[in-house]
Automatic annotation (TrEMBL):
Gene3D superfamilies found in the cross-reference section: 3.90.950.10
One of the GO biological process terms: nucleoside triphosphate catabolic process
Keyword ATP-binding: no
Organism: Halorubrum ezzemoulense DSM 17463
Region called Disordered, residue ranges: 119-153
Any one Pfam family match given in the protein's UniProt record, by short name: Ham1p_like
Protein origin, superkingdom: Archaea
UniProt name for this protein: Non-canonical purine NTP pyrophosphatase
């Protein structure tokens, strides 16, 4: 059974669209969210912590809104910016830019305690290099590194496989009553995410695109 680490049941329902029936369930686990300018190290570190907690295959996601004219901001800090500034303020700042292009990005991190064969697809990023980008491996409970060795510097990180999803768009004035987060100010193909119904949004969403790649790989796992 695959554990999808999230407090949002909607994410699990979205994952169920791509994975076999009964193969995924929600795991509510508050992993450490490291500070990084890229989604990969955050998802990788979360997946390693969650695997040690669950002792079972886990899937962790991290996502954000990347505004071109703001050098990718708010990016990995999207949740914090939404909570502190609000999406209206993000729109106000973006409206003063010449370049209002943006993208929603999602990175899925998968860990099952085993290694991975190299992948020729650069989007399905490797294993130890990406995981190690978060820094030294966190110690497990009881002072162990979770792999039978001593905790601390030099502990080899658990392999993590990363899958990315990306959807381009631009920042607009808020429109629509659906969705959540930045959906009302993110327009893709003439509609904001908040104007799309669930099926339409899932069909083009960054998380859906990452899940599709993951599901194709996971089928042979």
């Amino acid at each position: 059974m695959l554990r999808y680490v999230t407090t949002n049941p909607g994410k699990v329902r979205e994952a169920e669209r791509y994975l076999p029936d009964g193969s995924v369930e929600r795991l509510d686990f508050d992993y450490t969210e490291v500070q990084a300018d890229d989604l990969g190290p955050i998802a990788a570190q979360g997946a390693r912590e969650a695997y040690r907690h669950a002792d079972a295959p886990v899937l962790v996601d991290d996502a954000g809104l990347f505004v071109e004219g703001l050098d990718g901001f708010p990016g990995p800090y999207s949740s914090y910016v939404e909570e502190t500034l609000g999406i209206e303020r993000v729109h106000e700042v973006a409206s003063e830019l010449d370049d209002r292009r943006a993208a929603f990005r999602c990175t899925l991190g998968y860990c099952d305690g085993e290694g991975f064969a190299a992948s020729p697809d650069p989007v399905d990023q490797g294993d130890r290099d990406a995981a190690a980008a978060a820094g030294p491996d966190a110690a497990g409970e009881g002072g162990s590194d979770g792999e039978g060795g001593a905790a601390g510097a030099g502990a080899e990180p658990l392999p993590v496989k990363l899958f990315e999803g990306y959807v381009p768009g631009r920042i607009v004035a808020p429109r629509g009553d659906g969705g959540f987060g930045y959906d009302p100010i993110f327009e893709h193909d003439g509609e904001t995410f908040a104007e799309m119904d669930t099926d339409r949004k899932n069909a083009v969403s960054h998380r859906g695109r990452a899940l599709e790649k993951f599901a194709e790989w996971y089928a042979d796992r």
